[in-house]
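Review box. Two proteins, two foldings.
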Amino acid sequence: MSLPLYIIYRLLDLYSWILIIWIIVSWLVAFNVINTHQRFVAILMDILNRLTEPVLRPIRRYVPLVGGLDLSPLVLLLVIHFIQYGIVHHLA
């Protein structure tokens, strides 16, 4: 695999982890396990929202809520996975 493809692959991997952390933290906030009035939690949620929301917003236009559950992060994780698969198996 060439260096630019390797860097793209790793950046997508990092973004996947950011998205997973955002999902977990948002669930913890939704179920009142952690409180957004705590400074650390508020800062963490702000950073994660700034990193994920610009990518998730266009997906939310096409993917409806299912039983009040937002499936756009799952769709984005699948897209990232398919891009990574393409990098490893077809472009390398």
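Next protein.
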Amino acid sequence: MTRSAKKGPYIDPKLLKKISGKDPLKTGVIKTWSRDSQISPEMVGFIFGIHNGKDFIEVLIGEDMVGHRLGEFSLTRKFIRHGGKMQKELEAKKKEAEIAAAQAAKATVEEKIKK
């Protein structure tokens, strides 16, 4: 459920205090745990360290992010990958193919140099 228009967007007062009157280029990373705070136009250009439960993910705020929540840009779950033995075999074949392609390219370059 969205916040009522009568109340306006929720922006953490501590965050506004941290960025008020500061230059985005000179200010370093601003750490915050306020994932539910909305991004306002005043925040554009600042780099926020948004806590994901374990680490602070650094996010550069752009104009297209205004109106979204800070937590949307700092994911709390980490996707590793699917598969087990079969996936490893596919990745090994792919790596071998890349190595073979690199060696072939290197050989053609050496031939051109000799000519």
